[in-house]
């Protein structure tokens, strides 16, 4: 009987992990099923470009996994029962598993601010980005856009929209200092880019409410906007917290160093849904880079636990912040071992080219899961479940 592996989510973490498992485990030993809400692989890191009106190439997951032995189930995950090892889907069906890789990622966090869900747009999912694109296209010359947030997503969304829609007036509101985590030179570069693009900056402006015609700051100021874009952080889906898995108070799954659930043998996690400590002693942030490192560690653990091989150790590091400022400008700000900005950085067209190269390389790996397929894949041990339980204990 084949060992059933379920992979929930086919973003950067889930899609890569499914391909890796298919390359390294014998197909006669395992049945790998990927569950994803959309039929395409979505480059979440480019959704601000989608919202700004740019056309991107989408890769069908069925085509990506063709010839790998990976089965695709296009559906939304409704619930996970970690005790029964069952996944409930929106269509009412169930998926039983022996090993689960949870990689459902995250969505926009509203932080309980009134009006966000009713009136704000976001770029944390493709349907939301497409709705924002339609709204921006409907605005006439002089239309106003307010981006709320001071993180990388907010900055990328504001600059992309301003560059792609020069007829619109764009502003950004952040609770702190815009780019305050950067060293001096990259922060100056950031502010010059905002000036060049004509983006108004509202620093130290906490938003207390979003309305149909803008937002209200905590100090009572009204910020008028025809479209409000909420980019004030991310939150994980509540599915993990309701599944019986041990999670943090924010719903992120608690794992050991190998990305195994600390409470349920046979469950592994990768991507934004994981809470783990980086090499610098701080929690690994939600990011594409973190998704890659945690997926590499989780799949190494799955292969090792199922086949009896040694589990390799993937470095859980965070090297820095890399964000675009439109299509021809960007900043790469490295961080040191303490997670603090270093004195050097890469800026301008060079940083933009570097980011584009990294993204294209990552997507190539997603789109070619059979690339580098080994001629000999590993066989499962006679009792993989017993090995997993012993490893967690």
From TrEMBL:
The record's section on Gene3D superfamilies has: 3.50.50.100
Query: InterPro entries under this entry?
Result: FAD/NAD-bd_sf, FAD/NAD-binding_dom, NADH-Q_oxidoreductase
Where does the record locate the signal sequence feature? none
A GO molecular function annotation here is: NAD(P)H dehydrogenase (quinone) activity
Q: Which domain of life is it from?
A: Bacteria
**Could you state one GO biological process linked to this protein?**
aerobic electron transport chain
Flavoprotein is among the record's keywords: yes
Q: Where is the FAD/NAD(P)-binding domain?
A: 4-288
Keywords from UniProt, A to Z, are: FAD, Flavoprotein, Oxidoreductase
Cofactors named for this entry: FAD
Q: Does the keyword tRNA-binding apply?
A: no
Which family does the UniProt entry place this protein in? Belongs to the NADH dehydrogenase family.
Return the protein name.
Oxidoreductase
**Originating organism:** Glycomyces albidus
């Amino acid at each position: 009987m084949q060992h059933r592996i379920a992979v929930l989510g086919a973003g950067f973490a889930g899609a890569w992990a499914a391909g890796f498992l298919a390359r390294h485990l014998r197909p006669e030993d395992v049945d790998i099923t990927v569950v994803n809400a959309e039929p395409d692989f979505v480059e979440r890191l480019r959704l601000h470009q989608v919202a700004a009106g740019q056309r991107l190439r989408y890769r069908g997951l069925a085509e990506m996994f063709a010839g790998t032995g990976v089965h695709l189930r296009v559906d939304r995950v409704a619930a996970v029962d970690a005790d029964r090892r069952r996944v409930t889907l929106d269509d009412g069906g169930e998926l039983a598993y022996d090993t689960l890789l949870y990689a459902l990622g995250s969505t926009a966090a509203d932080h309980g601010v009134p009006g966000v869900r009713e009136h704000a747009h976001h770029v944390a999912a493709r349907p939301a980005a497409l709705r924002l694109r339609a709204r921006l296209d409907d605005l006439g010359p002089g239309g106003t856009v307010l981006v709320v947030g001071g993180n990388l997503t907010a900055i990328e969304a504001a600059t992309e929209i301003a560059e792609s829609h020069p007829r619109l007036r764009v502003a950004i509101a952040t609770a702190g200092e815009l780019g305050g985590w950067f060293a001096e030179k990259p922060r100056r570069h950031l502010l010059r880019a905002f000036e060049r693009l004509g983006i108004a900056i509202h620093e130290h402006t906490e938003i207390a409410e979003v309305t149909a015609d803008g937002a209200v700051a905590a100090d009572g100021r009204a910020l008028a906007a025809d479209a409000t874009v909420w980019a004030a952080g991310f939150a994980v889906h509540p599915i993990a917290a309701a599944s019986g898995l041990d999670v943090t108070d924010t719903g992120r799954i608690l794992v050991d160093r190998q990305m195994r659930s600390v409470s349920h043998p046979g469950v592994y996690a990768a991507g934004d849904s994981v809470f783990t400590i980086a090499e610098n002693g701080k929690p690994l942030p939600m990011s594409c880079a973190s998704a890659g490192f945690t997926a590499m560690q989780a799949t190494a653990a799955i292969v090792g636990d199922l086949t009896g091989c040694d589990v390799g150790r993937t470095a859980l590091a965070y090297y820095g912040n890399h964000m675009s400022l439109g299509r021809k400008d960007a900043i790469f700000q490295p961080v040191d071992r303490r997670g603090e900005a270093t004195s050097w950085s890469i800026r301008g067209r060079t940083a933009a080219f570097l980011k584009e190269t990294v993204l294209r390389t990552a997507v190539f790996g997603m789109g070619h899961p059979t690339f580098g397929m080994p001629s000999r894949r590993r066989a499962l041990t006679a009792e993989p479940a017993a090995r997993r339980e012993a490893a967690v204990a």
